[in-house]
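Support request, please re-run this one:
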Amino acid sequence: MTAELTGRVALVAGATRGAGRAMAVELGRAGALVYVTGRTTRDRVSEVGRPTETIEQTAELVTAAGGTGIAVPTDHLEPAQVQALIERIDREQGRLDVLVNSVWGGDHLLEFDTRLWDLDLAAGLRMFRLGIDTHVITSHYALPLMNRRPGGLLVEVTDGTASFNRTYRENLCFDLTKNAPHRIAFALAAEVKDLGGTVVSLTPGFLRSEAMLDHFGVTEETWRDAVAQQPHFAIAESPALIGRAVRALAADPDKARWTGRSLSSGQLAKEYDFTDTDGSRPDCFGYFEDVVFGGKDATAADYR
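Re-run finished. Output below.
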């Protein structure tokens, strides 16, 4: 990849682990200065309950990759904290070129194959707060700074493309939460169009996050061992793929052609000609559409 982001300032909201961490690191690898936020620090653990992954670690990885990582503990449900964060970025840098809304942290609340009236209502409503309210609050405070210069990029990170999410996601609150970023991107694209901004929604495929690897009892080096438990894991991708997708978008002078659209890491890998860490180019959503839902006689290997 030839993306060059030296001199650019990015904020990755929700960069403690997984896709958020990878996007921050890849922006740093291209030379960007990256503010990384989250609730888990070396002194405090969020409700996700994974103390070994912190925003300080993410900031260090950004710097080690070639950028400048700055960790700012932030609860994006607290407007005053988000406002203070943006004021700090303005004070220290005077600009914001890339905003990645990757806040989530609600996987521990999921109850799949459970009807609405049997769901834990408090857990369902908490998902709305974590996956929708945080994104709206963050954009409310960050967009005025980003809009000072044309060419800004806002990435709404979600789970599933707009097309894939036409299939019910087996939990009403999760379904609504993960469809909302598509509509947020569509709406904000219209609002920033005359200011020269670009807004997209972006999803990884079947993500080999730290939590997913732990779930299957494997590591990034041994992840294929989990295919015996879950055959569809054969299409899984590392978090680096979506990181490279954001890096490519941010560096593209013609990125406005994507504005308002739902995108995936696999789709952008083809468009910008980059690969995952193993050299493959997994097309998760093509595999699910053709093989899992469509019944095509093919394997995950045919979509890598």
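The two ends are 19 Å apart (CA to CA). The mean pLDDT is 97.
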